[in-house]
């Protein structure tokens, strides 16, 4: 692992987040690494380590979504979006956990933010997969939204990214909680996307939004369907009643009927319902009573949509985008 760290961390490193299966670190050189133990017998945070098949699936999804960014340079491309994180490299390594990363892990844990077990007791011959990606910014949980305009712009960028990926690759995220939405401020007033040949010009309101973490996602590739069998993790559906994230997993199971290989884009709409609920209940920003009611109404409508693609035309986003030529 030490040689891998040297490749992407020239200077300091900071732990910035964690998931059930791994840890995320940011180097000072603008690269974020997701480090995931794989294929071993030791439990990770009480869970069985991800196997080679699951790793292949996530890697395939990351590569396909990164390709949607690259399509912007292709005038003949039917679909493109920069709404998903760019994969720079995926590498497998073996060895003891990096001391530099463990120091960063301890510093993160000292803030009380960590729920994971420290990865220092994993075997010295442990295998890891490392995903090196662009730095997408701060997650929605910790990002300060300042206005209704920013909130709507943030939601719409997510809607467009999901819609493009639905059209291009029958994509479902299936775990789009507020830790998997990254935001950073930008001076760029508009961004472009293309959906089924139609160019979209999107007002950013000064935000650049990126979706991450495709461990539970589903996507169709030339080689078949890449997906995670969520039936193997019954605890995912056992969260507290009335908790929106927990209810979203259960809603997904109902609409998919537990057939996780099948394409069911309504799951994306369910997560957009969750995100609307999250900004209403968990985020504090300047909003009038009228605008808050608009968000409440959207939260309700989102449950009735069959895909993110349908939500592009929702009244909440009227005036935030225009369409151009179709090829």
TrEMBL record:
It catalyses: L-threonyl-[protein] + ATP = O-phospho-L-threonyl-[protein] + ADP + H(+); L-seryl-[protein] + ATP = O-phospho-L-seryl-[protein] + ADP + H(+). GO terms for molecular function: ATP binding; histone H3T3 kinase activity. Its main location: nucleus. One of its GO terms (biological process) is mitotic cell cycle. It is an enzyme of class 2 (transferase). GO terms for cellular component: chromosome; cytoplasm; nucleus. Keywords: ATP-binding, Chromosome, Cytoplasm, Kinase, Nucleotide-binding, Serine/threonine-protein kinase, Transferase. Gene3D superfamilies: Phosphorylase Kinase, domain 1 (3.30.200.20), Transferase(Phosphotransferase) domain 1 (1.10.510.10). Its EC number is 2.7.11.1. It is found in: Chromosome; Cytoplasm. It holds the Pfam family Haspin_kinase. Residues 10-327 form the Protein kinase domain. SUPFAM superfamilies: Protein kinase-like (PK-like) (SSF56112). This is non-specific serine/threonine protein kinase. It comes from Ostreococcus lucimarinus (strain CCE9901).
